[in-house]
Design goal:
The complex is a heterotrimer of chains A (196), B (274) and C (200). Chain A has 196 residues and is an all-alpha fold. Chain A contains 6 helices and no strands. In chain A, helix 1 crosses helix 2 (26-60), helix 1 crosses helix 6 (152-191) and helix 5 (124-139) packs across helix 6 (152-191). The chains are: A mainly alpha (196), B alpha/beta (274), C mainly alpha (200).
């Protein structure tokens, strides 16, 4: 059994949060609020370090252009004042950057390279992959209804999507179990010393 | 039900069964790609996981870091997840990197906010984005950072990334432009989501969840926590499968229709008429 | 917003042309500014929490004690991190022994709900449902070591499912989402969508 105070704190917090599975109780709520507070504090500290290292240090070294993002960042807090409209400027900058990089990433990484990979047809599996991709894409085609014999294509596409979702469900279960196993390893191993 | 689950998980941890573990294709590819690195190569290691999924991701990170230590490569640690730098310190220590020289053999550059935008910024200007290390020291003083200007100047990027930013963001912002080889560790939940990138060879190798970490530990001949957890993982899966079969067997054999919610029938009448 | 986004997009397509280097330079510096502004944005969440929970403490309502815990732990963390740095023993203690285990356990608790859901809710009524559940069972057994002990079919089938139908389905969703991103972006560029400014 560990004699480390920190390990005991961690162990008790683990049990407190796990107790929600039984029912909501004051220990769980206390642990939950502690977690949210520490987490928010950590985010502020990380943000402070980012601003200090990326903006204030170069500014102090004479690169005065860094005053611009600092002013824009401070303007974000205008939303708590009567001049809340000032907060739209930094939001526009962030959205502009995010949209621009997302569009270029989507075009190349998620579209053209994916199409190219689908069109590489050699083995039986690659032919099947091409057929399944076409079927799945046809399921999302809403401009015109598929009628007649070709209506089977989107129906088959729906089945392919169900297989994909089934695989996702299976791996989700796998992931959640792994996280619980990790916690049990901590409680029985690092804290209580039962596991070797 | 909860007691049954706990019994199924705790039992194999206390008394291991020793179910043999087979190495999957994705893990073998990741191992082979990392094994092909020459001594002195520079690798960027993204510690993009949080404590919430550290149970799956930390064993992956430690196993790969141990491999990189053996290969005598240089590791530049970065993070786009606020809790990443603290976890990076733990991982470097657990993998034995603290025996090496900080700043020359490895470095922890800390965290940068901004998600996908920050990944794009890093790819096009590494020293500008990470101008200091985790402790605020200028990167120009570190020998390991000499000659590293963009993502094209490193030999490989390895990211242990469950969420946002995740492997998709590295593919979109790094691989698409700079073609730097990418190896990813993902939680089990994300295996199916990144499969298209793996098939398209945008990601060269992938570790999937705790089994991926266990397989990597075996390839390294250094079994650790992940291998120890595999028996429990196997029995947990058997339990879930058994419960699903029981539930559906009860459906088939019962005369009245079950009142409980179904998994896939919810969407069958809504939306598209097929 | 449109100008910045267009600079980001053009930067991607410009090669080594020295005449248009200014676009590359503008894109690089703007992305760095984005990191600083995003860092400022991280403080907004903390301020919202402070406002909400301070009100609770002042009013001394039922949740005042928990709000006090939240505010106190947040302020202690901020003071420790800013004054002594993240490497200090106090900060490391709070990160390693409060934040880490709490975060891990929150996610781990979901496993219990999956077990009850598996017994109560995961039933199939039609072809799609059966396909989903059978695939899930094959993948669960194929990904765990027990699958290859039961039969070689499970890991082989699981690999095939992951690399063919799953890849196809996810690729279709990915491509559709990519087109959605592009169309949303164009709407924003043309001013047809101003939701990011809080306008309808």
């Amino acid at each position: 059994m560990s004699l480390n105070f920190g390990t005991w704190v961690a162990g008790l917090i683990t049990i407190a949060i796990m107790s929600l599975v039984w029912k909501e109780n004051p220990f769980y709520r206390s642990a939950e609020h502690l977690y949210v507070g520490v987490s928010a504090g950590h985010a502020v500290v990380m943000a402070y370090n980012n601003i200090k290292d990326m903006a204030f240090q170069p500014l102090a070294a004479g690169q005065f252009v860094w005053i611009i993002p600092i002013i824009l960042g401070i303007l974000l807090y205008a939303r708590y004042t009567k001049q809340a409209w000032l907060a739209r400027y930094p939001v526009s900058v962030i959205v502009g950057i995010g949209t621009g990089v997302a569009v270029r990433g989507a075009i190349h990484g998620d579209f053209t390279q994916q199409v190219a990979a689908t069109m590489k047809v050699g083995s039986a599996n690659e032919i099947l992959l091409l057929v399944f991709v076409v079927m799945s894409l046809s399921y999302f085609f809403f401009s015109r209804e598929f009628q007649g014999p070709i209506s089977i294509i989107p129906k088959a596409g729906r089945l392919v999507l169900m297989v994909a979702f089934g695989a996702a469900f299976g791996t989700t279960v796998m992931g959640r179990m792994a996280l619980l196993i990790g916690r049990i390893q901590f409680v029985l191993g690092d804290w209580l010393g039962i596991l070797r | 039900m909860y007691v049954l689950l706990l019994a199924v998980l705790i039992g194999p941890l206390l008394k291991p069964i020793g179910i043999p573990i087979k190495i999957s294709e994705g893990t073998q590819s990741a191992y082979d790609v990392i094994d092909s690195l020459e001594p002195g190569s520079k690798v960027v290691f993204g510690f993009d996981y949080s404590p919430g999924n550290a149970a799956e991701m930390e064993p992956q990170a430690i196993a790969i870091l141990k491999h990189l230590l053996l290969k005598d490569v240089k590791v530049i640690g970065i993070s786009f997840q606020a809790q990443g730098p603290m976890l990076a310190v733990k991982a470097f220590e657990a993998a034995g990197w603290t025996e090496k020289e900080y700043g020359t053999d490895y470095v922890n550059l800390g965290y940068r906010a901004g998600g996908q935008g920050a990944v794009a910024a890093f790819a096009s200007d590494v020293p500008g984005t990470f101008n200091t290390d985790y402790q605020g020291k200028s990167v120009s003083s570190f020998p390991i950072m000499q000659g590293v200007k963009t993502a094209a100047d490193v030999d490989m990027i390895i990211t242990i990334a469950p969420g946002t930013p995740g492997p998709e963001d590295y593919v979109r912002q790094v691989y698409s432009t700079y073609k730097t080889p990418l190896v990813c560790g993902v939680p089990a939940v994300a295996i199916t989501q990144v499969a298209p990138y793996v098939q398209a060879q945008q990601i060269k190798g992938i570790l999937g969840g705790l089994p991926g970490a266990a397989e990597y530990e075996l390839l390294m001949n250094q079994p650790g926590k992940a291998v120890a957890a595999m028996d429990a993982q196997s029995l947990a899966h058997l339990l879930i499968v058994a419960l699903i079969i029981l539930r559906n067997a009860a459906n088939i054999f019962s005369k009245s229709s079950p009142k409980s919610q179904t998994t896939a029938s919810a969407g069958s009448s809504a939306g598209r008429d097929v | 917003m449109t100008v910045i986004a267009l600079v980001m997009i053009l930067d991607f397509f410009i090669g080594d042309s020295t005449a248009l280097d200014w676009i590359n330079d503008t894109a690089v510096i703007t992305r760095s500014w984005g990191i600083v502004i995003s860092a400022f944005a991280m403080g907004l969440g903390a301020i919202n929490l402070l406002r909400r929970h301070s009100r609770s403490i002042v009013r001394r309502d039922d949740n005042a004690f928990y709000s006090f815990l939240l505010v106190a732990s947040m302020l202690v963390m901020i003071v420790l991190g800013v004054a002594s740095g993240t490497e200090s023993p106090g900060y490391d203690f709070m990160f390693s022994n409060i934040l880490s285990p709490a975060s891990s356990t929150m996610y781990a608790s979901i496993a219990f709900y999956i077990v009850t859901a598996a017994y109560r809710s995961f039933s199939a009524r039609n072809l799609e449902g059966w396909l989903l559940l059978i695939t899930a069972v094959i993948v669960m057994l194929g990904k765990a070591p027990i699958g290859s002990v039961i039969s070689d079919f499970f890991p082989v089938a699981s690999n095939w499912i992951e690399s063919v139908p799953n890849t196809a389905g996810m690729r279709a969703i990915m491509m559709g989402a990519a087109l959605g991103v592009i169309s949303s972006a164009v709407k924003m560029f043309l001013g047809l969508d101003k939701s990011y400014l809080g306008q309808r």
